DNA sequence: AAAGTTCACGTACCTTCAGTACGTGAAGGA
DNA sequence: TCCTTCACGTACTGAAGGTACGTGAACTTT
């Protein structure tokens, strides 16, 4: 079956819009990028943009969704290589710190994301991607008795926030030893959760 | 000595601008508040606003500064009541979680702050207020041998980020037990830093 | 295959917003 | 008393996000 020449073209323009706006949002920040700049880079007009997205914020939302999925995939890839649940947690956290050092991911996912979409919506999106993996692993570890029985949600937010902030700092830091130091401190804190 | 009727009036308008914009930024968010709305609420015109602040972002910066100082003061108040350095850390962290639950502080300090001023500048401001207290106490604890010797900065960012995110979650949560659960989990993680 | 319908845009326009240029009148100094 | 300074107010501008409507090619129907 042919996919239809029209549907094909539609998908191409949509992808061009997402791709170019992702690049511009990442380098200049959401607020500093105008729609005219985006459509010029994508080779279309504002009419096309508003045919695909109902607002600038929703275009950003589409970009953020793409970024989130990429991050989640790369983390899951690393974590799922391990058999032991505990080691999945450790390697997953380390993978997050490594991946999130990318300035592109930083600006879109960690800085502009909450401000543009509002924190609660940003949280909800996170929950469906990389946040779910963390909560899942933590829940497994509690169930198998590796870490102390306790509510999962507070723990998830504490760790997620710690890693977000650490990633932002690491990206701006110059000393390459900082990454090691941070990972060591993080692992020490994680170990605190284990039953003795 | 008279302070001068002109300097007095100047201060009054400036404070009115900061006060009203703080209220509006907190309720609607930085992006959704227009300057016209602010000057109308403050009872002045845009000419006055731009006489005091060179841009909308710098007005926000003044507001954020005020909020940061208030938060830092309230935390220092709680922490300094304790003699033991370790207990200063614990009570300070708990105070932060309590204070930062205020939605006004949330939106300005944690959500819009990094996006409007950029993360690095936001970090720098934090460092001069509440962030300094945390780094100070952690440094003291390392020096007195209470917690394991390690670089202070990674630790500071991990904890700071953990508390920021937890505060945002707590403000949105409905179960009052969440606060206790979070504080327990946080204290458990802090205890992990102690030398055995 | 011809006529009708849908749809993926392009064009032109509107509204609102941050920011600026300049005027003004009262406060302060000489 | 005259001159200067300064804390605003007024009027305007450019650009931004968003909208109304037109159009031609792709699909559907008969």
Total strands of chain A: the figure is: 0
CATH superfamily of the largest domain in chain A: Tetracycline Repressor, domain 2
**Termini gap of chain A:** 61 Å
Rg of chain A, alpha carbons: 19 Å
Largest interface: A-B, 44 and 44 residues
Order of helix and strand elements from N to C terminus of chain A = HHHHHHHHHH
Count of folded domains of chain A: 2
How confident is the prediction overall: mean pLDDT of chain A? 95
Fraction in helix of chain A: over 70%
Largest β sheet strand count, sense and barrel closure of chain A: none
Determine the structural class of chain A based on helices, strands and strand pairing. mainly alpha
The CATH architecture category of the largest domain in chain A equals: Orthogonal Bundle
Rough outline of chain A: elongated
The third-level CATH topology of the largest domain in chain A is: Tetracycline Repressor, domain 2
CATH class of the largest domain in chain A: Mainly Alpha
Supply the number of helical segments of chain A: 10
In the predicted model, the low-confidence regions of chain A spanning at least 5 consecutive residues are none
User: What is the percentage of strand-forming residues of chain A?
Assistant: under 5%
What kind of oligomer do you see?
homodimer
